[in-house]
Amino acid sequence: MGYENEGTIFALSTGLGRAAIAVMRVSGAESKNLLTRLCGDVPPPRHAALRKLWQDAGTKENLLDEALVLWFPGPKSYTGEDGFELHLHAGPAVIKAVAEALVAYGARPAEPGEFTRRAFTNGRMDLVEAEGIADLVEAETESQRKLALAQSDGVLSKLYQNWADRLKHVLAHQEALIDFPDEDLPPEVEQGLLTEINTLINAMQTHIREGERGERIRRGVVFAIAGPPNAGKSSLLNWLADRDAAIVSPVAGTTRDAIEVNGSLAGVRVTFVDTAGMRETEDAIEAEGVKRALFHVKQADCVLQMFPADDQPKTIFPGAVLIGNKTDLGPVPAKVLGETVVPISLQSGEGLEALRQLLEQKVEALTARSSFGAPLLTRARHKAGVQEAVACLQAALAQDWPEMRGEELRLAMRALGRVTGHVGVEDLLDAVFGQFCIGK
User: Fold this and answer.
1) Mean per-residue pLDDT for 317-345?
2) What whole-number distance in Å separates Cα of residue 229 and Cα of residue 279?
3) Where does Mg(2+) bind (predicted)?
């Protein structure tokens, strides 16, 4: 996808459908001229003013709407360009008429993400902050909102920039060792250089490890509900979803495929996956269901392994939460194979609130911030860039030639630069900004 970075663009920033207000955003060099033609004058910067909008304000021809108008002169605007907002009445006819007037004056509809791309191009934000804006628009839970807001506010960018600045300092010392080999520089220079490289490697590797938590917050925590037929898996899913999401039947093997339900626990997005009952079978369809169940078990962040009171499991999935169901029909052991069992009855409701609290604790543990409080990595692209930087720094430590070590340090800086968008990112921009909604 290519963008025409010239010209003035506009887009509806609010959603389509019945509403009281629709916000039309405009950005570009001709913004002031367009606003003057619509309402006759330009209000004070960043002050809402009530204005009549005309097809041609000079002749007062064809009244389009009466709207709140906000003028944002560049560079102190979202995009860094001159721009304005029109808070229109949200009727489709009003929106259509105003859009046609803007096109008649020379503006064009914006491409997805073009407003934010212009903000990036004009230095109003870096690539990591721009992705934070996209995540903020998509945020469904409190944890997603907080994580996206921190990223869009530059918390993650500041961490990467700090690493880049420290690498520059290391590279400067390395260049001194290369340029002045006969100057008898103190040995502390090279030793300090190597120590700082090791410190950076450790910090980056910790960031990568903690990244799993950030990715879970962004995409949600996945629980797979597994166990033998008639263990109560579908009933548990329905209780967690607070609706009849899955068919419940006393007939063993009712669930043949995976059923997913989204929800929220401890302010974090969660997905519960009900899977087919696991058992040996000659039925080809049921066997495929068991195969898919095992796939979801392997992909899940946590497995809820259920069993009925009269059928204890012979094996336990790693890290699984053991749930013994049907306590109303018989006792459930406190432990199975050394692992603690959560006793419940989906029929009577016994133990369900305790189970919910346990699941919330599990979610909090899977998404908790590290003790040192560094911002969490959130995207595979960021992870790949930091991993590349680590590989280059490790290669730098292995080099005997100072010139080769210096080159590896430069490659590490470039890897970090591509994450924030400061170097070599043209091939990334379309993919990053193409995910945005039109009004961003």
Assistant:
1) 88
2) 7
3) 234, 255
Q: How confident is the model at residue 113 (pLDDT cuts 50, 70, 90)?
A: confident
Residue 255 marked as a ligand binder: yes
379 annotated ligand binder: no
Q: For the chain, which domains are there? A: 9-126 (3.30.1360.120), 132-217+376-421 (1.20.120.430), 221-347 (3.40.50.300)
Indicate the pTM of the whole model: 0.70
Q: Is residue 25 a known part of a binding site?
A: yes
| b/e sequence 155-185, b meaning 16+ C-beta within 10 Å | bbbebbbebbeebeebbebbebbeeeeeeee
Is 14 flagged in the annotation as binding?
no
What pLDDT is attached to residue 432?
A: 45
Cβ 305 vs Cβ 317: under 8 Å: yes
Higher-scoring residue by pLDDT: 371, 56: 56
Task: Check whether 232 is labelled as a binding-site residue.
Answer: yes
Q: Give me the phi and psi of 51, to 5 degrees please.
A: -140, 150
Residue position matching structure tokens 């860039």: 385
